[in-house]
Amino acid sequence: MLRNVSSMGKFAFSSIIITAFVIMAMLECFNLAHIYSNYQNNISNLKEFFILQEKESIRKEVYETTSKIQSDYDRQYKNFIDAIKHKTLNALNAAREFHKISSSRDEFIKKMREDVTSEDEGYFVYDLSATPFIQSEFHSTKNVSTVVSNIVYNHIDITTTTKKGRNFISHAIVYEPAGVVIGYAKNLDEFNENFTNKTRDYIRSLSNGDSYIFIIDRKNNKIVSGDSEEIQDSSFSLFDEKRRQTLYKIGSATRGGNEAFITYEWLKQDKTITEKISFIKDINLLDWSIGTGIYLDDMHNYLDKQKNIFYSDFGSKLILFTFYLLVVVAVLYMLAVSAKKRVVTSFTTFADFFNNQTDLKRLETDKIKFQELKDIASNINKILDEKDELLDTKNQIQLALNKYKNSLETSNIVFKFNEKNLITFANSAFCDLIGYAKNELIGKPIRSVFIKERNNSKIKEVNEAVLRKSEWEGVLKAQKKNGEICHIKANVVPIETTDAKSKLNFLCICQDLTTFMEHQELMRTELQDPLTKLPTRQMLINKLSKQQGQLFVANFDILKFRQINEYYGLDIGDMVLSEVANIVRNLTKDQNLELYKLESDNFAIVGDKKHWENDDFYKFCEKAIEYFKTNSVIVENNKFYIDLAFGISSDMQIMTSAIAKEQAKDMNQQIVVFEDKKDELAHNVVLTRAIQKAIEEDKIVLYKQAVIDNSTNTVSKYECLVRMVDDTNNVVLPIDFLAAAKKSNLYKEVTKIVIEKAFAYFAKNNENFGINLTIDDVMDGECLSQIKDQFRKHPGIGERLTIELTKNKEINDFDKINLFIDEVRKFGCKVAIDNFGTGYTNFEYLLKIKTDFIKIDGSIIKNIDHDEHARKIVKLMIELAKTLGIQTVAKYVHSSDVSKMVNSIGVDASQGFYFDMPKPLRA
Prior knowledge:
By secondary structure, the protein is an alpha+beta fold. Strands 23-24-26-27-28-29-30-31 form an eight-stranded mixed β-barrel, surrounded by five helices. Strands 2-1-5-4-3 form a five-stranded antiparallel β-sheet, with helices on both faces. α1 (7-101) packs across α4, α1 runs antiparallel to α7 and α15 (561-568) packs across α16 (570-588). The longest helix is centred in the N-terminal third of the chain and has 95 residues, at 7-101. The relative contact order is 0.04.
């Protein structure tokens, strides 16, 4: 059959036969391994199933036992307390009778001692100041104070006390007609000991031979039934050490209310040691752990029997497989000997050729026995001849290329990397640009310089070019060693190398575009608003500087725009801004007017006086207001009716128009012209400049005023008060400059200074302090971030800080206020509502804001010594605050009479000139 087949074909046929034998042997081997693996899995599954069933059984048994113990204790403890209360009520009934017939307290006490407490030493009678008239034998002097304090001040009638290491339960009632506390005390430890003994007997009754409920106490001692051999049989002494270790393991696993399954070895009653699994549950009630378990020897016997059956069957199959394998090996050996003579000569010739390629010798075809291999040898010799010719040409090209690369690398910013994106070369210019030394760059991946996150798809494009072995050109962002970012124009070119490890490198010729890109970005952001694409405030400043006095400026805001951001989110707010900008842009089109975007919801319209008269420019602003009143702005299926407030100026441009706009908002007007109210608004301009100058020259300063604890008459904390020092070194009060600061957008800067200076000063001492924040401050995320930064900068200072919330406006979003409070309380900070009772503050805020203090406004406190109406209001505030667990502070306490009055009606703390005049922080 093989007569017409070539010599190599015969060899291939023989090889296939041999391979088939080998594959059959391997398949049989895999089959045996599969059988053994399935057996192991079956044994494991049987064991897991058995253990799972037993676990559920013993868990149920322990749960039922612990549930009964708990319910018994609750029932007996309730009866114990009810008995004490019954004793107290008997004493109270007697006290009522004795009080009616007694002419004095001494007579009343005497009758109580003779007829009631003489029967039982658990009775007691104390006056409301903790003076014992009749003292229970179970109470120490300290116990007397505790019982009286709990019932009189905390309204707690049940008190647990300790005397000489023993615990007692007391029940007390205030009998007000006699001004005494009457009660009865009883030994709690005796109750617990009786319950423990009964429970131990119950547990013993459940035990049955090797199966029993056991108890482990906090000292890891095991308690079982009295007739158990574990206690009586001396054979357990041989097991003591291991027994102690096991009990310790069980006890430790269940401390603190835990439960656990534990597997361990234990001595059975037949003196055999076997594996056991137990479920143990901690009962804090009795300082015990209760458990039960089962022995696993029956399971192990069953599994051993299954193993013996398997090993018998598996051994038979293994003997058969061994015989089969020996036959295969014998056949393979005979075939190998037959083929060896013909193969060795031919393949030795090829081996010699491939092992000696240094001199490029040709294959000797006359030594090769197979015709197919002779043809291959001839083709290899032809390829070698062609390779010699190509190598000569390549050497000439490479010589020219090396000259070009050397010139390029010395005159440009250059680096090279291989196909694995590892840097293989960097010239001095590239190292100077990036800030790394050469040895720090060589071998590093290019992503360590060109960070993928900063370049997104561009790094992917470079990688794709590397895979294609093609050129690439583009601009990348690189990170210098000092962390700075630079922009690099990169031209990547593939080049061949003589390196045996990497046949191909990539040459990257760079150009530093950092300065150019930064300039472009700066110009773009300064001159054009990215959201509305309108010219910015800087563009307006540039225009006004060139045409001073020749322009009208209308500065306008979107009223209540913050509410849109808060209720609909910043994304919807941005869409509303864009839509408003587009509408006003269309209104100003072909009108010789220019629209600018200043900041947030603030815009400006500029008109040249060559084309506009005062009245016409005013009417155009009215037209814009009227348009938005009659036409809604629709964003994401939401309708918004926009109100605008305008300030017009032809004098000092941006500042004066902004001041006029704020005046319009304060007066609830649509438009205010600066020149019409120049005298009134000029003061605001001067004051605004004074505030700006004070900020720049560090003349915003802090004072402090003490808050006095009325119960101890000592300083509990200091409130920080802001002041401004003017050019004549006069101290300006906040009432005279804060309103102007808010209108001119300088208020945030003032708040930042207050926070920084307050934290810096009080970080140097241990005094408690408070700072004032408005609702606008609390709603501003920047303010919260600054406070949290100060908490982290000065660890522990938050526990000494109280933030006083000043209500400068109606609160519409209590959730956001409470979110701010939750964040600062994480650092231990407290919160107070300032000026409570006036302005926007009302009793509703106590229910909606999580506050620690309320500071009652001075307008209510200042006349409280002779104003009955004011006293009633303050008493109502105090009563509500105490109910909610809130402390009270009276402000404007300016005299001894006012101080005495606020003390008498229960105010917790006082603040005012009577106690302390405000002083600079440096004092």
